[in-house]
Amino acid sequence: METTTLSTKYQLVLPKALRESMNLKPGQRFMVRASEHGIEPLPCEPVSALRGFLEGADTCLDDIRTRDDRV
Prior knowledge:
By secondary structure, the chain is mainly beta. It has one helix at residues 16-21, and strands spanning 30-35, 38-43.
């Protein structure tokens, strides 16, 4: 496990080994959330990474209720 220091500008530098192992790039965005164990930075996936993730999903809309069917 490697360590890093919070700068006076509240910035963290990710260790090089971690950046390379996760294939992180400069300018990449992260979601950050607090957890019971500390802070979790989660890399945001670009929209292009979502292409095809619904491949094979049933897109038949025949069984969807219409507005008139709603109460």
